[in-house]
Amino acid sequence: MASTAYSRPSKPPGPAAGDRSGPRLAKELGRIEPKKLGIGLVAGCCFALLTYLSFARLFAIYSPVFDSSSSMVLKNMPPATTTVPGTATGALPVEEQKEVRDPEADPHMPNLPEVTEKDQQEEATATKPEAKITCDENGVDEGFPYARPPVCELAGDIRVSPKEKTMYFVNPSGAGPFDSNGEKKIRPFARKDDFLLPGVVEVTIKSVSSAAAAPRCTRRHDVPVVVFSVAGYTDNFFHDNTDVLIPLFLTTAHLQGEVQLLVTNYKPWWVRKFTPLLRKLSNYDVIDFGKDDEVHCFRAGHLGMYRDRDLIISPHPTRNPRNYSMVDYNRFLRRAFNLPRDAPAVLGEETSAKPQMLIIERKGTRKLLNLPEVSALCEALGFAVTVAEADADVRVFAEKVNAADVLVQIVPWGKMDWMATNFYGQPARDMRLRYVEYYVSEEETTLKDKYPRDHYVFKDPMHIHAQGWPAIAEIIMKQDVMVNMTRFKPFLLQALNELQD
């Protein structure tokens, strides 16, 4: 007998499907008592999940997965007129950052007195704070299978030489988490993934006993530095947020823009795509770590970034001492994209207005095969429906999604409960989102056309998970879905009910 043990019951929470009809509910929308709806954010669509239906009028920005190839991203890049944070060759605002050129590096600089070694030593003593380094390497998270990456925070005389992939740390005592060569090597990527990390540029913190043992400064900065990587899956909205943007927010938000960003594995299209967010976090042009010959000097900085769980931010004495939350990240996104309101519209204020629905369309794998029928059903229930596909113009797409109120997630077959809950269900609740899950049955997945019903794909989906990610990617991630309209309709009615609470 074919098993449906790994499909959620077809009967949704709340009233039975026959207790109320769609048209009647749609007609009564105008009479719903106005109530304020909470604001929230969903920043990403998990590689594991199918597609989303999101309903107006609420959360800040929702960023679903789009085609993960770089060629697609480059094809869809924003217009060339978009302001892009500069690389190391771009000019920094002189009123914000102080640049000091070494006379020995440029002997033709006029009107500069001769600089002696004694002068340099006195300057270092007068301006540099006490050398200090702390590294958070406790990547274990009980109850969550993904370890956090190491991150080091430094204070003192810090000299960054991108050409040497080295941060020189003037450290007379020699104390710190260094090996026998006085070095600490880190790949500054905010996901500790053994498959991805070899592709991340490795940066060395080198402890030196004196300023004379470090290269001379050619550019001096009055703000701290954060060195981080945009390698890995950063052509995917989910990973853009979980692996870079949220960790960068956690690490730098308290600095209120007074921080210099140095990016390894630099991707111009990625920087262009997220210019509004990078500009909100840093007042200075981004420096391309791979194309810079300067020696940048700082008094404080980080190598790597702090992170919590995917799309979840929790209080922590080291990683999040300021107790930021996903609501704070939501607010940050709203301000960065100039989204018009911090509070949602009141349902019922305009009796003629229909609740807006945005259906995020996928064109690769995990497609919604009967999208036209789903769209027609939603319109019959009283929604004004828009179908859109995410592209590289994040600002425009954020404006489209900003009206959403209830997030309905279609979860594919294959025992994906844990991922749905931990990657989206809990984050949605943390972000004060109204959230509805629809679990696909074995009758709704194209896997039924590839495997017999007595196969472990249906009898024991956890057997797929036990084989590891390659099996999940090959089987679960390549399915498409044709939603059963009778089964799906009650979940749409539940979404409408959410608008009344």
Structure write-up:
The chain has 501 residues and is of the alpha/beta class. The protein has 2 domains: 17-61 and 338-498, no CATH class; 71-111 and 121-334, no CATH class. Helix content is 25%, strand content 17%. The protein is built from 14 helices and 15 strands. It has helices at 22-28, 70-75, 117-127, 237-252, 268-273, 275-281, 326-336, 371-380, 394-401, 417-430, 456-459, 462-466, 469-475, 485-498; strands at residues 51-56, 132-136, 151-161, 166-170, 183-186, 203-208, 219-220, 225-229, 260-264, 287-288, 296-303, 356-360, 384-388, 404-411, 434-439. The strands form 2 sheets. Strands 2, 3, 4, 5, 6, 7, 8, 9, 10 and 11 form a 10-stranded mixed sheet that branches. α6 (275-281) packs across α7 (326-336). The longest helix is centred in the middle third of the chain and has 16 residues, at 237-252. Keywords: Membrane, Transmembrane, Transmembrane helix. Residues 1-24, 98-129 are annotated as: Disordered. GO terms for molecular function: glycosyltransferase activity. The chain crosses the membrane at residues 37-62.
Helix segment tally: 14
Overall SS class: alpha/beta
The share of residues in helices is 25-40%
* Alpha-carbon Rg, integer: 26 Å
Separation of termini? Answer: 41 Å
Tell how many strands the DSSP assignment holds.
Answer: 15
Low-confidence stretches: 1-119, 122-126
What percentage of the residues does DSSP assign to strands (E)? Answer: 15-25%
The total domain count is 2
Biased composition (Basic and acidic residues): 98-107
Keywords: Membrane, Transmembrane, Transmembrane helix
Transmembrane segments: 37-62
GO molecular function: glycosyltransferase activity
